[in-house]
Amino acid sequence: MAAATYLVRFAGYWIMSQVPLTPFVRAALEALPGAIIVSTVVPLAMREGIDAWLGIAAAAAAMIFIRKDVAALGLGVAAVIATRQLGF
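Structure (tokenized):
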């Protein structure tokens, strides 16, 4: 698996070195991390319910106001734990 991981990473770098970096390609690459996060988190939130949505909201608020990844993660997890403890 390690060899496959390095092969895929190398292939990605090599392929992107062959692609001209137009404004459209640059915009697509800049939007990609957010799209991956959303496509990972939203199905989980849909399945888990209101406590997951409150955790996402707490994490998003932390990123907006504090701008620290670890703080957002901690506040999101704390919000999920708190809402589950309250019975939501």
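The chain has a mean pLDDT of 90. The chain has four helices and no strands.
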